[in-house]
Amino acid sequence: MIFVPVTTPRASQMADEAPFHFLHNELINYIYTPGANGETDNGKNMSRLEAMGFRVGQGLTERFTKETPRFKDELDIMKFVCKDFWTCLFKKQIDNLRTNHQGIYVLQDNSFRLLSQLSAGKQYLEHAPKYLAFTCGLVRGGLADLGVKSVVTAEVAGMPVCKFQVMIQKA
Question: Mean per-residue pLDDT for 36-65?
Answer without folding.
Answer: 85
